């Protein structure tokens, strides 16, 4: 590969041997992202009053389902990659070679998280809000793995940060000469996601977005950026009404995020009283609650829905 001082080189290797095992950098990025997301979510949930590390119980269900559905989503939207003429259908199982779709991961992860929350007693929307910044951070780390796999790059460019891709490459666009540089869309998305982490952390603290509204903001932020990056990518993808399938998915993500924020704001104008569903509250070991404490709710505390209901009742009585 010719040296280009004003470009971003791609790594020469994408894996390394460890005894009889082959370790892929892509997989390491995905695993690192999952670990970081679990740690950040645990910190946020614990601050809300949840049992420390309850997030692990939820992740045991959510993470496997997220990966499975993410792979299924990718295979379905890239059917000819695996089941076209001359293709080996077994490669649909080779997840270590890359190819998982974040929107599939969101669908599978949401199902798994809902099941995990039912198991642990955590409110689903509380968990989703706690997860949102960590999820975006995990996606940023995961995108770094695309660099090692030399995949998901964009249109040709002569910008100083153009990405070098090995030639020949199975995904190399026909007709382009060797030495062509491409938009590093993986890098654009990674930087957008990292910026989004700070936006979500700020919004969650400053605006007190609860009842799933912070997760709704996550969907809007990530999906809005994804519409842009997806529009300049040149890897093969199914086209529906002139748009790539992931562009449609991103548009739906923005709409869903707006709907969640609007509906949850209307349904829950107050703050969440607890990260747990009623009757499933967790009490720290050694702490003792009297029946009076259990029965008593301070309606002057704006963090409870009871406060909002009491205020509404009082207002109605004085009219």
From TrEMBL:
Q: Which Pfam families match?
A: LGT (PF01790)
- The broad enzyme category this protein falls into is transferase
- Provide the transmembrane region boundaries: 23-41, 53-73, 93-117, 124-142, 186-204, 211-229, 241-263
Q: Where is this region: Disordered?
A: 271-319
The molecular function GO annotations come to: phosphatidylglycerol-prolipoprotein diacylglyceryl transferase activity
* Top-level taxon of origin: Bacteria
Key word Transferase present: yes
PANTHER family given for it? PHOSPHATIDYLGLYCEROL--PROLIPOPROTEIN DIACYLGLYCERYL TRANSFERASE, PROLIPOPROTEIN DIACYLGLYCERYL TRANSFERASE
Q: Which family does it belong to?
A: Belongs to the Lgt family.
Know the name of this protein?
Answer: Phosphatidylglycerol--prolipoprotein diacylglyceryl transferase
Source organism of the structure? Microbacterium koreense
What is the primary gene name for this protein? Answer: lgt
């Amino acid at each position: 590969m010719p040296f280009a001082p004003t470009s971003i080189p791609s790594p020469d290797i994408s894996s390394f041997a460890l005894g009889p095992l082959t370790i892929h950098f892509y997989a390491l990025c995905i695993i690192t992202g999952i670990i970081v997301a679990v740690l950040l979510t645990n910190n946020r949930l614990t601050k809300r009053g949840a049992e420390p590390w309850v997030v692990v119980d939820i992740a045991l269900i959510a993470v496997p389902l997220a990966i499975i559905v993410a792979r299924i989503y990718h295979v379905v939207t890239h059917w000819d990659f695996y089941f076209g003429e001359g293709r080996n259908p077994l490669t649909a199982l080779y997840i270590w070679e890359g190819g998982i779709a974040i929107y599939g991961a969101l669908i599978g992860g949401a199902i798994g998280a809902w099941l995990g929350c039912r198991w642990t007693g955590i409110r689903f929307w509380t968990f989703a809000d706690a997860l949102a910044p960590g999820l975006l951070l995990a996606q940023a780390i995961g995108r770094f793995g695309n660099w090692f796999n030399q995949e998901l790059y964009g249109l040709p460019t002569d910008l100083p940060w153009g990405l070098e891709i090995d030639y020949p490459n199975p995904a190399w666009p026909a007709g382009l000469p060797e030495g062509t540089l491409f938009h590093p869309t993986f890098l654009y998305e990674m930087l957008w996601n990292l910026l989004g982490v700070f936006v979500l952390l700020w919004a969650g603290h400053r605006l007190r977005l609860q009842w799933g509204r912070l997760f709704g903001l996550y969907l809007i932020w990530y999906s809005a950026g994804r519409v842009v990056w997806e529009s300049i990518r040149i890897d093969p993808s199914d086209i529906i009404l002139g748009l790539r399938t992931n562009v449609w998915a991103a548009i739906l993500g923005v709409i869903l995020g707006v709907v969640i924020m609007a509906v949850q704001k209307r349904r829950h104008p107050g703050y969440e009283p607890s990260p747990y569903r009623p009757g499933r509250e967790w009490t720290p070991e050694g702490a003792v609650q009297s029946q009076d404490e259990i029965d008593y709710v301070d309606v002057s505390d704006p963090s409870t829905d009871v406060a909002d209901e009491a205020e509404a009742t009082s207002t109605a009585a004085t009219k």
